[in-house]
Amino acid sequence: MTLAATELEFRTVIGLEVHAQVLTQSKMFCSCSAEYASAPPNTHVCQVCMGLPGALPVINRSAIESVIRTGLALGCTIPPYCKLDRKNYFYPDLPKGYQVSQYDLPLCVDGQLTFTSEGVEKTAGITRVHIEEDTGRLLHRDEGGASVSLVDLNRSGVPLMEIVGEPDLTSPVEARDYLIALRQILRYIGASTGNMEEGAFRCDANISTRTADGSIVGEKVEIKNMNSFRAVERALIYEEERQRKLLAAGESIPQETRGWVDARGVTVSQRTKESAHDYRYFPEPDLPPLTIEASFVDSVQAALPELPAARKARFIESFGLGASDAELLTLERETADYFEVAVGSTTDRARQISNWLLNDVFGLQRERGLPFDAFPIEAQQLNQIVELVEAGDLTGSGAKSLLAGIEPGENARAVAERLNLLAVGDSDVIRAAALETLTANPAAVADYKGGKKAAIGRLMGDTIRATGGRGRPDTVRAILEELLSE
After folding, report:
1. Full-model pTM
2. 350 CB-near residues (< 8 Å, 6+ apart)
3. Among 193, 340, 377, 466, which one has the highest count of C-beta atoms within 10 angstroms of its own C-beta?
4. What percent of the chain has pLDDT above 70?
């Protein structure tokens, strides 16, 4: 019997497998440069990463350390022993015909990731984090009217870690927020750039659907080809609805791999899902098993930076910031570091520095097209500017002009003096500007005298502008109130 999807209560089960390129200078098993994106095709290659017979790999210690660092950041256990395995399959951009990966003895096991989704704190389990090597890239193009596929092996052998999550996610939105939190941690600890547009952070999503009472259970489907957080969410929304309709109609869902077609907003079948035995795993004979000493793990643990969630909580408690501001300041480690340097020992002006950073410094950064980790002024200079504003030596307008005009290494007060931006406290100058403002704004004057005291805000703004943005606000207000009372 066919039932409408709306007549059944469904549950969605999602587990994510994330592949993140490890941030190292050289590849996983050879000394070739791991920088592949900007290099001409097939220039960062050697006998090892080309898979030539007889070439022997050597393990990249830095990559191993980064994966262990990731595992510790995710609360994983680091077993004292692990090994590398051959995962056999054939594909044009896999020259050896197998990938060196890990099967039954990975580097990190049994962790968790805590994240916030739709205002609620969630925790999802991490099954394992293991090391492997990336494949080459296929480039499809037209050559002389014919469609050809070219292979670039610059990426072949770049260190890659796979982070396998438990099927603890229950919605596409949760999956998106999980990925955002995971990427943030990887960037904080310096384990990966997390650049999705370069393929340094990729996700395969496993999703299944079942009824709440367990009477109908669909098979797990894997979705590939998603290259953004939004694409992951859209693909899972589509697949969730597709599976629910099939199950409600009494149809079965085969275990398969499907690809996401972003332009059409659909998933399409690619192949039936492989099992582990299809890959014919066996221990890599050219690489020794690894013994991970406890002292080494302790040293990696001690070197971990403060993680985003802990830093956000400290910013709220120590600096009195609101949750939303603390969230924005800790999105990137570079921003949080800049903020702390700017605050220094002057914690009493932390909130003012936060406001100037999030609004004006970020605005100038966007205006100049600077990357997130390149700030238009130095952190100490921002502190100096806020100090001048607090002391009344610089108006808000003057501070914005100073922010745009200061150069690296310059003292904020010296620049303000040179650019004639320091606030004017001369009552005669301000009185003349105030009289000019009152004459030009009879409606605002009438509103103020009629009881609408907020109208003085417009009059203050016009008066300050009449002084070239240099009139001290407290002096301007006092003189305007005096004149309006006459």
Report:
1. 0.88
2. 319, 320, 321, 343
3. 377
4. 97
